[in-house]
Write a structure and sequence with these properties.
28% helix, eight-stranded parallel barrel, four-stranded antiparallel beta sheet, 729 residues, alpha/beta, TIM Barrel
Length: 729
């Protein structure tokens, strides 16, 4: 049935993005439309779907992603030992983006979008390069638990020199009208804080001493930078770090753990494993303690508050939160439902439940849906994924945000005043998925704001392509492409950069922007294009592809088809004028007009084409306005209670295989309207109407349904069809 799904989605109207990924396909009669940086801009006359006057925008990065390596850098050693995919085969790998020495490039690119908040971080191991017991503080005292004297053997800034440089960078950001959001711990612990012995559970965050060392380091940083920083992130995705480093050994220090070792690490956290406290529970407990101690310390020191008030003209109190990784977990089968519940409770809510009394704001990092299958995450061939293997699901974003809002809105113990989306983005070197990804996720954010959740800011990940942990340089998350073959690491802005700039500056998303962004995806599917994929799958191994040492990433991306699924956000109820919104046209997947005996199941208006059955579909789309707005006896404009029967122009044979349309029918309703490749264009209806197919798996359908299709053909009559004529509903 894969060919069936592909044939349907390829009947979508095409808008060709000239100059991108030429595949040699002849797409006549579709018109080429140049989508420049301005083609994604909003038209003043286009309906406004979402207004963001009460929301600020930002961009994010992190030290290990963008700073050149320093002596003792744990991620550099991890890459040199063969654990990082797409590292040694990339030029200038250890330079990353040279942000510490050349920050102006990234800062100018970020400021060029008009954002108000720039998220960055400080590197603990750079500021404290030696074990505290052997280190000297800037004042000459020993031992030194906080920021240390510089390491003279390191050509890059370290110790107090690095801290001074971080302050200069914050001042540069402020001078460009960007407030700073500063992260104290972002997936990198100093090399001296851990050992490589998988049986040693008393190192890293699993030991009490690490909390004390972190606190002194954090105090030193906050004291020095509090007059140039507005938002503080104590920890970025701590449960992810503990899981992948301590429990799985897929991140430094390693080594990779066996399944039994990983389970032993989780004892005391997972039901039925062991009542004893394992490494995961112990480490998370220490991280929770460190966060709460820093929160209490910062709010108790008036000199910090005075610096805030004097420098930023804001309330005299630090704004302290965390950046917590959240995915929309879904069970693959009924047998995975329990695993989903455990994952939600243990990884989605447990950390926040523990620190909810010590949060000024709550940061959420969301990238997509995780399909839980057995003990791992499954890649569904029918879904769309980022290059790094995250299922793209704006509906899941909306669902996840609502879960947090509902859980803490009436919690009297919680001090959470607002939420910030501290990371959201997609790895997509083609820049075909990214425009729609940005638009659809922001529409999901707007919908949950309308439902009462206070989200003050949205931070996109990231400015420029950079090092992505164990995946190295394979995934491309940036609004800006980086040419690593040049010593200058030459940057070039992608079209999505200009889209984000337009949204940030105008603070709106229009219907035209949404349509233009989705046209890129439609066109890629129509042209049967492929895109890079950086995850190591079993099919990759079977094909002899070399995976990274931890068997998760690829040194060289593998080509992957764009998914036929329509993954746009489906729950936007109204535009800003109150106009009802609708889902895309949809139909059951099993609506094939061939009976089990191979005879056509004729319906009124059906006919055979060259001896082959036509396929029919029942088109419908959901009206998303609240039913309470309408009188029970009122007929909505365009609403029909009867499903329309529409026929694919493409013939369908009894055995279910596709048949090419006759050459004479290309570009005509005679009776098909097809591309040169035999892919369908408009649908043909039993009542003389013309329909477009737009697939979406909506599951159980409830509510109001608008079943009146739009006629895409010129003057309602057969004839030559262009991309403009075939705009679809």
């Amino acid at each position: 049935m894969v060919s069936f799904r592909r044939s349907l989605v390829l009947s979508l109207p095409a808008v060709v993005w000239s100059g991108r990924h030429e595949s040699g396909l002849n797409l006549e009669p579709y018109d080429d439309v140049e989508l420049s940086s301005h083609a994604l801009s909003p038209d003043a006359s286009s309906p406004v779907l979402a207004n963001f006057d009460d929301t600020w925008f930002g961009l994010a990065t992190a030290p290990a992603h963008v700073e050149a390596v320093y002596k003792g850098d744990p991620w550099q050693k991890w890459g040199q030992d063969g654990h990082v995919a797409a590292y040694k085969n990339y030029p200038n790998a250890d330079m990353r983006l040279r942000f510490l020495t050349e920050p102006e490039i990234e800062l100018d690119l970020a400021a060029g979008t008009g954002i108000k908040v720039f998220r960055m971080g400080v590197e603990w191991g750079r500021l404290a390069p030696q074990h505290p017991s052997k280190a000297t503080c800037p004042d000459g005292s020993t031992p030194c638990h906080g920021v240390q004297k510089p390491n003279d053997d390191d050509p890059t800034p370290t110790g107090e020199n690095a801290l001074a440089r971080y302050k200069e960078i914050c001042e540069m950001a402020n001078a460009r009208n960007m407030s700073v959001m500063m992260t104290l711990f972002h997936h990198a612990i100093p090399a001296w804080a851990h050992t490589e012995d998988p049986n040693d559970e008393h190192n890293g965050w699993e030991t009490e001493e690490t909390v004390d060392y972190f606190m002194q380091y954090a105090k030193d940083v906050a004291t020095e930078l509090s007059d140039v920083v507005e938002y503080w992130v104590t920890f970025n995705e701590p449960h992810v770090f503990v899981l992948l480093s301590s429990c799985a050994g897929m991140w430094p220090p390693g080594p990779k753990r066996t399944a039994s070792q990983s389970a032993w690490c989780l004892r005391g956290a997972l039901p039925g494993v062991s009542p004893m406290v394992g490494g995961y529970t112990r480490a998370m407990g220490h991280i929770e303690r460190a966060h709460m101690e820093f929160y209490t310390w910062a709010h108790a020191h008036m000199h910090v508050s005075q610096l805030y008030a004097a420098s930023r003209a804001r309330e005299a109190s630090p704004k302290i939160g965390v950046a917590h990784n959240v995915a929309n977990n879904e069970a693959d089968t009924w047998g995975d439902v329990l695993g989903k519940r455990v994952a939600d409770n243990l990884f989605k809510f447990a950390f926040v439940d523990a620190i909810k009394t010590h949060l000024d704001w709550m940061g959420l990092n969301y990238y997509g849906t995780e399909l839980l299958s057995g003990a791992g995450v499954k890649i569904d061939e029918n879904e769309e994924y980022s290059e790094s293997g995250r299922m793209i699901a704006p509906d899941g974003f909306h669902k996840t945000l609502k879960e947090f809002h509902d859980r803490y809105k009436d919690d009297e113990k919680s001090t959470i005043k607002s939420y910030i989306i501290t990371e959201n983005g997609v790895s997509d070197a083609t820049d075909i998925l990214r425009p729609a990804y940005i638009v659809e996720h922001l529409l999901a954010l707007k919908q949950v704001q309308r439902e009462g959740m206070k989200i003050e800011g949205y931070v996109h990940w990231t400015v420029s392509d950079n090092w992505e942990w164990a995946d190295g340089y394979c995934p491309a998350f940036g609004l800006v492409h980086v040419d690593r073959s040049t010593d200058a690491l030459t940057r070039s802005k992608r079209p999505s950069y200009f889209l984000y700039k337009d949204i940030v500056e105008k603070k709106v998303i229009t219907q035209e922007q949404r349509d233009n962004a989705w046209a890129l995806v439609r066109n890629a599917v129509l042209r049967q294009e492929k895109r890079p994929f950086c995850r190591c799958l079993q099919s990759s191994v079977d094909a002899g592809v070399k995976c990274s040492a931890d068997e998760s990433g690829l040194d060289v991306a593998e080509p992957r088809d764009f998914s036929v699924k329509d993954w746009r956000f489906t729950k936007l109820q109204e535009d800003e004028s109150g106009q009802c919104q609708t889902t895309a046209w949809t139909a059951p997947d099993n609506s094939v007009s061939v009976g089990p005996d191979g005879v056509c199941n004729f319906l009124p208006g059906m006919e055979e084409i060259n001896g082959n059955c036509q396929q029919y579909v029942i088109l419908s789309r959901k009206v998303l306005c609240d039913e309470t707005k309408f009188d029970a006896n009122e007929t909505l404009p365009g609403r029909s209670m009867e499903a329309e029967k529409a026929f694919l122009c493409k013939p369908w044979t009894a055995d279910g295989t596709d048949v090419k349309c006759p050459a004479s029918s290309v570009g005509k309703h005679s009776p098909c309207c097809c591309s040169e490749q035999g892919t369908c264009a408009p649908l043909r209806a039993s009542k003389g109407k013309h329909h477009w197919w737009s697939p979406r798996g909506l599951g159980r359908r409830t509510g109001l349904w608008d079943n009146t299709p739009k006629n895409p053909c010129p003057n309602g009559a057969p004839g030559q069809v262009t991309a403009e004529d075939c705009a679809g509903p």
